Amino acid sequence: MTSDSEDWGGEALYERADPETGATIFIAMHSSRLGPASGGTRMKTYPDLEAARRDARRLSEGMTYKWAAAGFPRGGGKAVLAVPATLSDEERDGLLRRYGSFIQELGGRFWTGADVGTSPRDMDVISETGAPYVFSRTPEHGGAGNSSTWTALGVEAGLRTTCARLFGEPSLSGRKIVVQGAGSVGGELMTRLLAAGADIAFGDVHPQSVRRWRDERGVRFVEPDRVLETPCDIFAPCALGGVLDAASIPRLRCRGVAGAANNQLAEPGDAERLRARGILYAPDFVINAGGAIGITGQESLGWPAEKARAEVLRIGETLTRVYELADSLGITTDAAAKRIAEERLTSSPVEKR
Ligand code: NAD
User: Fold this and answer.
1) What is the atom index within ligand 1 of the atom nearest the CA of 115?
2) What percent of the chain has pLDDT above 90?
C-alpha cells in the first residue's frame, strides 16, 4: 500500500504487513531530487503503527536535508520495521529476508543501511535478497562495516568548528564536553575526545556503558537526569531525539550544542529558543552525516577510505558556512542549514555519481 501525507511533503510511503512475524515494514521515500532515496533501516517496537509511520516520514525528511546539506548525490529515504516486543533470531532473519525482497522489488529507488536496532550483520542478511541496494554490510561480506566510527569522526570535526566559532580556536584540548549517551557513536566520540585532550563527562542509563566508561576508563559520570544542567563548554547529545525543547533548553549550562543524535529539536521553534539563550547549535543533520557519507561513499560510489575520510571531515567546512549564513542573515543555525540544503534541492542537481 502507498500513502502520502500533505504535511510531510514526501514522494511515497510504502507499507507492508509481515504476517509471519506480526511486524509491519514501512519504506518512506521523501525525495529523489538528488538521487535514489537512501537511509537506514530502524527496527523498533512502537506503541502503535501510526507512531511507526510518523517516525518513517520524519526520519526520511531528515535524510533529504542530510544528503543535500552534504552535497551528496542521494535522496531522502528511511525504513522502519515495526516489530513485536519478542522476535526469535529465526523470525528476525526471515523478516529481514522478506524485507530484502521488498527492497529488490523497488528496483533501486530505495537504498538502505544499518540504523538504530539494526547492525551490519543484519545488512548481510538483507542483502541476500535485497542486493545491490544495501550498504553498511560487514567487511567479510564486502561492506564498509559499522557507521558509528565515521559518524564520530564527523562529529569531532563539527565540534572543532563549533569551538573555533565560540572560542576562537578549534582545539579541543581542555574543553569541557558533556556527552549524553555513551553508545556506538557516543563511545567512539569519547575515545576521540580523550585523545584530543578534552575534559569530558558523560551520562548514560545503561549499566554496561557506565561500567565501561566510569569504572574501566575513569571518565567522570553524571547522573542521566543531571546531564542538561552540568556546566560545560559543549553539550553533545548522542542518545535520543527530541532532547531540546521548551523545558530542557532553559536548563542548559553550555555555550554550544553539538552531537550525533538525530532530530534533537523537539520542534523547529526550539532553534530560536537556543539562539535566544546565546547557545550555538550545530544542526544535527549536518554534524551527524559522517556515517551516511563515509559508508555510502565507499560502498556505492567506490571511494577509497582516505577519500571517505576527507569527505567526512568537510562537515567542519559545511558547519562554518552554516554559522556564517546564520550570522549574516540573523537567523537560527537550523534555518541557515535548511537554506543551504534547499538551495541544493532547488538549483541544478549535484553531479549524479
Ligand atoms: P546506541 O543505541 O548505540 O547508543 C545510544 C546510547 O544512549 C546507549 O548507550 C543508551 O544507553 C544511551 N541512552 C539512552 N537513553 C539515554 C538517556 N536518557 N540518557 C543518557 N543516555 C541514554 O545508538 P547510536 O548508534 O550510538 O546512536 C546514537 C544517536 O545518534 C541516535 O539518535 C542515532 O539516531 C544518532 N545517529 C547515529 C548514527 C550512527 O552512525 N550510528 C548516525 C547518525 C545519527
Assistant:
1) 41
2) 92
Residues 2-56 have pLDDT tens digits of 444 557 899 999 999 999 999 999 999 999 999 999 999 999 999 999 999 999 9
Instruction: Over range 256-280, report the average pLDDT.
Output: 96
Ligand 1 centroid – CA 107 distance (Å): 31
Q: Is 78 a catalytic residue?
A: yes
- List the grid coordinates of 207: 549499566
HEC string for the chain: CEECCCCCCCCEEEEEEECCCCEEEEEEEEECCCCCEEEEEEEECCCCHHHHHHHHHHHHHHHHHHHHHHCCCCEEEEEEEECCCCCCHHHHHHHHHHHHHHHHHCCCCEEEEECCCCCHHHHHHHHHHHCCCECCCCHHHCCCCCCHHHHHHHHHHHHHHHHHHHHCCCCCCCCEEEEECCCHHHHHHHHHHHHCCCEEEEECCCHHHHHHHHHHCCCEECCHHHCCCCCCCEEEECCCCCCECCCCHHHCCCCEECCCCCCCECCCHHHHHHHHCCCEECCHHHHCCHHHHHHHHHHHHCCCHHHHHHHHHCHHHHHHHHHHHHHHHCCCHHHHHHHHHHHHHHCCCCCCC
Whole-structure pTM value: 0.93
Indicate which residue's Cα is closest to atom 4 of ligand 1.
183
Q: Is the CB of 159 under 6 A from ligand 1?
A: no
- For residue 330, how far is its CA from the centre of ligand 1 (angstroms)? 32
Question: What integer pLDDT is reported at residue 6 of this predicted model?
Answer: 54
**Is the CB of 155 inside a 6 Å radius of any atom of ligand 1?**
no
pLDDT tens column, 189-244: 999 999 999 999 999 999 999 999 999 999 999 999 999 999 999 999 999 889 99
Residue nearest to atom 25 of ligand 1 (CA): 184
